[in-house]
Design a protein that fits this description.
heterodimer, A: 392 residues, alpha+beta, Uridine Diphospho-n-acetylenolpyruvylglucosamine Reductase, domain 3, Alpha-Beta Plaits, 3 domains, 8-stranded antiparallel beta sheet, 5-stranded antiparallel beta sheet, 14 helices, 18 strands, B: alpha+beta, Vanillyl-alcohol Oxidase, Chain A, domain 3, 19% strand, globular
């Protein structure tokens, strides 16, 4: 990361400045976009860049139309600050990713999400409009201010999760949800096989759960809504879970909030860890967990698994600092997950783990089209060069 | 070229006779028929790819067509091009009940997906009014919505993966059955691209569990504006109903003539509100909806007492369009979106416009998400078509001025390509065109749709209009 540290840092305060920074007299300098910097180690390490464009100067809540349940927010606004603003009118942007200081734009550019994606979707589903600046200085807007709109290409889908490799995201219009009046969580001690069976049963039931998460031998089931609704659903969840005859507890209030913060963090990992993300169909969790255990046994790595079972998204934290061991673990688990029809990418990585093939796995089937898109948006290859999928 | 394509699809999959070609001269937008050069009806992805490769090799334009129910001319044929009709690709490829995913070919209808999983208490959530006949391939192209998308989202929120034939004839997979496939979300930009980025030949969607409880009411108001205020109150309260539909007096009268649901004929507007979900949750929300309607001045509320009564209310809503023929020999269906808080204001302006121009305007629409569908009634025999079209166009202008959109679900197609500049700057459109170029450098895939072109809209982009961002003082003229 030394190349990044050496680069010049600029902090545009408005859209016109952002555009001028990117145009920057055509010297074709490499740029890296930075929000709070919580996910800079996602993707492949970019080639050395000359400029880091920080979005911290673009941090305003431009408009909050509470009655319409929409908001226009600049990319550099910290998500926690946005949520605090919105909460004053009983609303929130329905996303609960880890990293409390992450910016709205950063969460969007990484398409990071948290446990409650099960109910509300990810940033991809909540953004209804976007303003972007390309590396050749084009300011473009897509979508709009209304929740229903099919005019033009939905460029926000393309930019969401692009890790800053296509353009600078300057502003987002988002759809808001009412803050739930009441919440409760049923936690049940369950191994991955039991957790999978229970999850399948719950997904097939008319219960509406906000999150289904497994870590450390516990499956946690969150219910939100109005008080009477939550009470009724918790009773039903407890009845279903009771059939498994396992230790069970019901959490609410601060203990519940704390549990969910820790759950979100279990998908983030910490510095000095490699965080590997696998995606499968939800009913494959037991196999994914078994494959992970087997892989760890083989490579000797110290690993820990957390899973958004209801979504089929699994995060593995690898500890220790041996790049070869981490590489072997990623490779072996990837082969096993691929055999289940899933895929594996590395998010956070330890120093020295830089091989795009290890980080991303085999190129996606549409890699050719993705390269064309990258070329159209960033012809000179200036935006986070090499950071994207397969080193794009 | 005929010979090559005939070899690909066989004699039964090929139409070249002028009289038969006429069948395909338009989709649901009937005003500007175009006879296609050729029509092919492939049955496999390999055939689609072979046809597209042949077009690409010769630089011949092609247009994909599903059931032809689109209302913006997205499937309007090209006079020198090949029309690729996907109606014979109708296999349900895979049903995964446990993981709630279904994979189908593009010609399968929207309603067939729900039928295929109904026995497992699952359904496909996006429900455009034409769902009995419209195909999922067309739904993907147009990012179709429907009555229940307020709560459950649009096609784009339910399509997980696509097999696509790109405009150079290659077959690629975008997204997949599992979430977060690595790389750019090309599936996301493909959905709603109106057939300009390629042809979807296989579609994987997620299906939802049917809700435990569903409750529906109809509330009557003296004016559409008052009903609009009730919608804003419901939204502002944080209730997200499964659907909120409005019919004004003209729409009620037209619908009653056919559906006979017993709607109050003298009401200024009727609001149909449905809530669904876990029973206790629904009870709370439903009670609150009733209170809010009363507070907004509802003159009467009728609650559907059972499934049959609920079905009748929805029949009334869905009949309103088709029944309009009883009130007028011709009508234009407009599609625009406004912020929900502006419903009352914009509906009042539409009423003024109607009085001012003498054209009756019926309103029947998805009020919960601000998606207006004004029907401008006219008589073509009296030469009223052009003036009526002008009234319809002015309503869309009002939507844009109110901070909304030129289309909420019908799409841009040929119908509104020239209106795109009302919403987007040249720079916005130029960047969107980059996506087009990345997928289709030759520009042969459904050309002339979605984007304004000099041929369609005149040589010059019209008088300069400041970009909304400029007006806000956020950016300078760029």
């Amino acid at each position: 990361m030394t190349a990044i540290a050496a680069a010049e840092t600029v902090r545009p305060a408005n859209l016109a400045e952002a555009r001028d920074v990117l145009l920057d007299n055509g010297r074709a300098r490499g740029v890296l976009f930075r929000g709070a910097g919580t996910k800079l180690d996602w993707g492949t390490p970019p080639h050395p860049v000359d400029v880091i464009v920080e979005t911290a100067g673009l941090d305003r809540l431009v408009a909050h139309n509470a009655a319409d349940a929409t908001a226009t927010v600049q990319a550099g606004m910290p998500l926690a600050r946005l949520q605090a603003e919105l909460a004053r009118t009983g609303q929130w942007l329905a996303i609960d990713p880890p990293h409390p200081d992450a910016t709205v734009g950063g969460v969007f550019a990484a398409n990071d999400s948290g446990p409650r994606r099960l109910r509300y979707g990810s940033m991809r589903d909540l953004v209804i409009g976007m303003t972007m600046v390309t590396s050749d200085g084009a300011v473009a807007r897509s979508g709009g201010q209304v929740i229903k709109n099919v005019a033009g290409y939905d460029l926000a889908k393309l930019l969401c999760g692009s890790l800053g490799t296509l353009a600078l995201v300057a502003e987002l219009v988002v759809r808001l949800h009412p803050l739930p009046v009441s919440s409760a969580t049923v936690a049940v001690h369950a191994d991955p096989t039991e957790a999978t069976r229970l999850t399948v049963e719950l997904l097939g039931s008319p219960l509406v759960l906000s999150a289904i998460e497994w870590s450390g031998g516990w499956l946690r089931l969150r219910v939100e809504g109005r008080a009477a609704g939550v009470e009724e659903q918790v009773a039903e969840v407890t009845r279903l879970v009771g059939l498994y005859d396992r230790p069970t507890e019901i959490l609410s209030g601060d203990a519940e909030a704390d549990l969910w913060r820790r759950t979100a963090d279990s998908h983030a990992g910490t510095a000095g860890e490699t965080l590997v993300r696998a995606a499968t169909l939800p009913d494959h969790f037991a196999e994914v967990a078994a494959a992970f255990e087997q892989t760890c046994d083989e490579t000797g790595v110290a690993g820990e698994l957390a899973s958004s079972v209801g979504l089929g998204l699994h995060s593995a934290r690898l500890r220790g600092d041996d790049v070869a061991v981490h590489t072997a673990t990623v490779g072996a688990w990837r082969r096993r997950v691929a055999a289940l029809g899933g895929h594996v990418v590395v998010r956070r990585r330890i120093e020295g783990l830089t091989d795009p093939d290890v980080i991303w796995g085999p190129p996606p089937p549409a890699a050719g089209l993705m390269r064309s898109v990258k070329k159209q948006f960033d012809a000179a290859g200036r935006c986070a060069p090499g950071r994207g999928v397969s080193g794009m | 070229m005929q010979t090559e394509l005939a070899l690909v699809v066989g004699p039964g999959g090929f139409v070249a006779h002028p009289a038969q070609l006429r069948t395909y001269e338009c989709d649901g937008l009937t005003g500007h028929p175009v006879i296609p050069g050729l029509v092919v009806l492939p049955t496999t992805v390999d055939q689609v790819a072979a046809i597209v490769r042949e077009c690409a090799r010769r630089g011949v334009p092609f247009v994909a067509r599903g059931a032809g129910t689109g209302l913006s001319g997205g499937a309007q044929p090209h006079p020198e091009g090949v029309l690729i009709v996907l109606a014979r690709m109708r296999r349900i490829v895979d049903v995964d009940v446990v993981n709630q995913r279904v994979t189908v070919e593009p010609g399968v209808t929207n309603a067939e997906i729900s039928r295929a999983v109904a026995a497992h208490n699952l359904y496909y959530a996006p429900d455009p009014s034409s769902q009995i006949v419209c195909s999922i391939g067309g739904n993907v192209a147009e990012n179709a919505g429907g009555v229940h998308c307020l709560k459950y989202g649009f096609t784009t929120n339910h399509v997980l993966g696509l097999e696509v034939v790109t405009p150079d004839g290659e077959v690629v997979q975008l997204g997949g059955g599992v979430l977060d496939t690595p790389g750019y979300d090309l599936r996301g930009v493909f959905v709603g691209s109106e057939g300009t980025l390629g042809i979807a030949t296989k579609i994987t969607v997620r299906v939802c569990r049917t809700p435990q409880a569903v409750r529906t009411l109809v509330a009557y108001f003296s004016t559409p504006a008052a009903a609009g205020d009730a919608v804003a109150a419901i939204t502002g309260e944080g209730v997200i109903p499964a659907g909120v539909e409005m019919m004004d007096n003209l729409a009620i009268q037209a619908s009653e003539a056919d559906a006979q649901a017993g709607l109050e004929l003298d009401a200024g507007a009727a609001l149909i509100v449905e809530t669904d979900g876990p029973a206790a949750e629904v009870d709370c929300e439903f009670a609150r909806v009733g209170e809010l309607c009363e507070a907004a001045g509802a003159t009467g509320i009728r609650v559907a007492q059972n499934a049959a009564e609920r079905a009748l209310l929805w029949k009334a809503r869905k009949a309103a369009f088709a029944s309009m023929g009883r009130l007028s020999p011709d009508y234009f269906v407009q599609d625009g979106v406004i912020p929900r808080t502006k419903l009352g204001e914009v509906l009042a302006r539409v009423a003024e416009l109607s009085t001012e121009t003498g054209f009756r305007v019926a309103n029947v629409f998805h009020a919960g998400d601000g998606n207006l569908h004004p029907l401008v009634l006219f008589d073509a025999k009296k030469g009223e078509a052009d003036d009526a079209a002008e009234v319809a166009a002015r309503i869309v202008d009002m939507c844009v001025e109110a901070g909304g959109s030129i289309t909420g679900e019908h799409g841009v197609g040929t119908d509104k390509a020239c209106s795109m500049r009302k919403m987007f700057s040249e720079s916005d459109l130029e960047v969107m065109l980059r996506v087009r170029t990345a997928f289709d450098p030759q520009g042969i895939c459904n050309p002339g749709k979605l984007f304004p072109t000099p041929r369609l809209c005149g040589e010059k982009p019209g008088p300069y209009r400041p970009h909304p961002l400029e007006e806000a003082g956020v950016v300078e003229r760029m």
